[in-house]
Amino acid sequence: MNIYRDVVVWDAESEAARRCDVCTENGKISAVKPAGTYAYGAAYEGRGRTALIPGFINAHGHAAMTLLRGFGEDLPLMDWLRKRIWPAEAKLDGELVYKGTMLSILEMLSTGTTCFADMYFFMDSVAEAALAAGIKAGLSRGIVGGDDGAAKLAENLKLARDYNGARGLINVQLGPHAPYTVPFDLMKDIAAAAKENDLSVQLHWLETKGEWDMVETGKTMGPEEYLEKAGFLDVKHLLLAHCVWMDREKMSFYAKPNITVAHNPKSNLKLGSGVAPVAAMNEAHINVALGTDGASSNNRLDMWDEMRYAALLQKGVNMDPSLLSARYALRMATKNGAEALGFSDTGLIREGWAADFMLIDLDMPHYAGWDLENLPGYLVYAGSSADIMTTVVAGSPLYHMGEFPGLDAERIIAEAAEARKKLI
Amino acid sequence: MNIYRDVVVWDAESEAARRCDVCTENGKISAVKPAGTYAYGAAYEGRGRTALIPGFINAHGHAAMTLLRGFGEDLPLMDWLRKRIWPAEAKLDGELVYKGTMLSILEMLSTGTTCFADMYFFMDSVAEAALAAGIKAGLSRGIVGGDDGAAKLAENLKLARDYNGARGLINVQLGPHAPYTVPFDLMKDIAAAAKENDLSVQLHWLETKGEWDMVETGKTMGPEEYLEKAGFLDVKHLLLAHCVWMDREKMSFYAKPNITVAHNPKSNLKLGSGVAPVAAMNEAHINVALGTDGASSNNRLDMWDEMRYAALLQKGVNMDPSLLSARYALRMATKNGAEALGFSDTGLIREGWAADFMLIDLDMPHYAGWDLENLPGYLVYAGSSADIMTTVVAGSPLYHMGEFPGLDAERIIAEAAEARKKLI
Fold first, then answer.
1. Same domain, yes or no, for B179 and B272?
2. A30: domain range?
3. Quick check: is A223 in a domain?
4. Size of interface A-B (CB pairs under 8 A)
5. 3-state DSSP helix/strand/coil percent for chain A, to nearest 5?
6. For chain A, how many helices (H) and strands (E)?
């Protein structure tokens, strides 16, 4: 048993932060007691000046795109994709994806992410990287249609057979890329396969303006009818990435217990896609999580950044500072993304829940004046991922004070830099 | 002489990053030579894996508002000001302002700022804090009109007599708060005093929508005519903070060598003021710098954050990823703010210029794959202030690896936390 003594616990359903002793055992939180309950044997002594909050759930991304970071900076979207990203991706193989994913895992662990969504290629390599590092992941094979669509679906189903539930770290979803890259018939097959195999689904949804015009059935069906007719509404969980151009009039449609929107504020800005109407989604009671998207359109895999961008953007763009509170931003970055990736016991600091959390140093200058009442605002608006001392996944500290116990960070960085050269 | 050997130099006018040896002496950069010129005696060995870039110029702020951070989070603007900020500010005195400013200086130094603008009250205390820390500052007494406007102007002029040029660290500007808080006649007196005393001017300008309706002469004069008739166009330098609601049709008016706009993207978002049309300002050839504004509306005094928000917001809100490049964002955060604060020799890494710069660790995971060509994009989009190892002002390292040589950081933080309690 590990005891984290006198830490300031915050989770998405707390009314306020509390000083507690938190115990972990076998990857779970075994006790959350008033601070000082345990007099001896603390693995960590927080002195009431360290926050312990749930690990971030990065609800949308393409981890190995760390290798493509900086390719075609500041270019228009289609030039960026056609001239820089797609030609580079054509050169990827399993080994390169493994190396890029390992690099992304260093970045995510050091910035508090304990679980990440991934939709990409060579997903066995991504699963192996996550298992090697000990981080949690919700993985899907990005299915782009055409003649080999069925083969890609089969590959995604094999990924599920091989890795679903592996060491409690991996869950597999099906990953149809987007309605404009997957034929409608294949979409129906994917939805049917999801239900047959009790799998959840991730897909890109309404990311860019005018995108619906590129959908095969775009003229005959609106987005909501499309989801219904394809058969996605009763899959286990449906994770819709982006939703920048979700129609405000149709939002109530998406307020379902098995639907989560993954909002990627920085990627949407950087690619010029726009600002998703998240405040309106909140009002419509849609479950909204946060994601970084890939490192080549962000270019940083730092959920703390996303949390702050999400809150500030809604206030600024809607010209209403009361929108998207700090408390809600923390919820979006943590609990709201867990269910969609199949982790129903992560995202709260409660007895019996997974021991996935981070420790935050409240002695930094920008926290001067924090108290149990105002802590969420200090975290979201004044803090940063640089304040994270330790990131714990399933009870194991995978990041601690600049080091990655169990990982050879220097080698991972050097190998990723080498791998990147092969893609240029 | 100090030698920073084999560092990667970037400044706003470079075509590309270069590996150099940089020497400092008597607060200035005494040489910038090809890497390897100096074989012995390096104070710092960069091995081509440390960037040396100009220190950030924080072109708009209210430093002591660190004491008011978190007051009235997520409230509408007028509730925030009337119920939380103004009552707290009424309790300020010189000692409290000193303590709040010292805290802000810790935050700014650790995030790469070497020079900051400040418009507040008890400005002697701010000057003393800057001198005690050794950081550069452009200071103005915030003048809000009414019966004692003339006395406040006299106070601002005394500040200039007492501190202008002090140890090469302090320059003083006149600080009329805004056209809606200063009567037009007093504005004219301030402009005349600025010219008589060869002083520059800072003021808030077009921060919120509809603000012009609150201006005394708002019905008879537009903003541009106002500046002209008040006599501000031929002051030494005019620093206009915010300009969120600058009319696109009138932008060419502001493209003058003695006018600088201070863009505060995060504060403008957080208070719900909107997004300043910076891309259009660029096109109109207006000089745009960056600022954090006060810590109670941001809540972080981190110019690296502002630099990234500035770039991403213009791309996202205007739906054009080619707007506001990484190179231009770095220029906005560094050189573009210097002249307005009276520091004409800071903001470039050149022989004879001030030794105001930061050292950045390029061995962090998110820099894997950087090269001399793509460095600006890596810095602006992937980096963060956590990558800063050392901040040097006038040749002295004031921040290094989490420590503040010469400052008792623990005491400053504790005193600020105590001071804050007196304002609640």
1. yes
2. 2-54+347-400
3. yes
4. 206
5. 40, 20, 40
6. 13, 16
**How close is the nearest chain A Cα to the Cα of B126, in Å?**
18
Residue A54: strand, helix, or coil: strand
10 Å Cβ neighbour count for B1? 12
Examine the domain organization and report whether B320 and B366 are in the same domain.
no
B64, B96 Cβ separation under 8 angstroms: yes
Angle at A233 between CA A227 and CA A237, to 5 degrees: 115
- Residue B234 CB: number of other CB atoms within 10 A? 12
Using DSSP's 3-state secondary structure scheme, residue B148 falls into coil
Residues of A in contact with B274 (CB under 8 A): 316-317, 319
3-class DSSP assignment, residue A354: strand
Query: CB of B126 within 8 A of CB of B103?
Result: no
Judge if A41 and A109 occupy the same domain.
no
Single pTM value for the model: 0.97
By the CB < 8 Å criterion, does B114 face chain A? Answer: no
Both B24 and B93 in one domain: the answer is no
Query: Any bridge partners for residue A23, and if so which?
Result: A3, A31
> Using CB atoms, which residue from B274, B378, B420 is nearest to A70?
B378
Average pLDDT over chain B reads: 96
Tokens of residue B397, six digits: 């390292």
For residue A299, give the chain B residue with the closest CA: B382
pLDDT digits (tens, 9 = 90+) for A265-311: 999 999 999 999 999 999 999 999 999 999 999 999 999 999 999 99
The total domain count for chain B is 2
Q: What is the CA radius of gyration of chain A?
A: 21
Q: Is B171 helix (H, G, I), strand (E, B) or coil?
A: strand
> B299 — contact with chain A (CB < 8 Å)?
yes
Are A381 and B413 an interchain contact pair (Cβ–Cβ within 8 Å)? no
- Cis before A299? omega within 30: yes
B113 and B251 inside one domain: yes
Residue B248: burial class (beta carbons within 10 Å; 0-12, 13-18, 19+): exposed
Cβ–Cβ of B368/A80 closer than 8 Å? no
> Phi and psi of B348, rounded to 5°?
-130, 155
Residue with tokens 């294949």: A186
pLDDT tens, residue by residue, A8-17: 999 888 878 9
Chain B residues touching A110 at Cβ < 8 A = 365
Q: What is the pLDDT of residues B143-159, one digit of tens each?
A: 998 889 999 999 999 99
Structure tokens at A106: 């260093």
d(CA B4, CA B42): 6
Q: Is B41:A294 a contact under the CB 8 Å cutoff?
A: no
Mean pLDDT within A250-275:
97
Residues 6 or more apart in contact with residue B178 via CB below 8 angstroms: B203, B204, B205, B207, B211
State pLDDT tens for residues A376-406.
999 999 999 999 999 999 999 999 999 999 9
Pick from A307, A319, A362, A378 the residue to mutate for testing the B interface (most B CBs within 10 Å): A319
Judge whether A326 is closer than 8 Å to chain B, CB to CB.
Answer: yes
Report the run of H or E that residue B52 belongs to, with start and end: strand B50-54
pLDDT of residue A74: 80
DSSP state of B407: S
Q: Do residues B380 and B330 make contact, with C-beta atoms less than 8 angstroms apart?
A: yes
- Verify that B192 and B65 share a domain, yes or no: yes
Is residue B43 domain-shared with residue B63, that is, in the same domain? no
Q: What is the CATH number of the domain that holds B294?
A: 3.20.20.140
Domain of residue B37, CATH code: 2.30.40.10
pLDDT higher than 80, residue B77: no
Residue among A353, A370, A352 nearest A361 (CA):
A370
Distances (CA, A) of A281 to B121, B167, B393, B424: 42, 54, 47, 35
Residue A73 has pLDDT above 90, yes or no: no
| Tokens coding B246 | 């600058």
Q: A300 — contact with chain B (CB < 8 Å)?
A: yes
| ipTM, interface predicted TM-score of the complex | 0.97
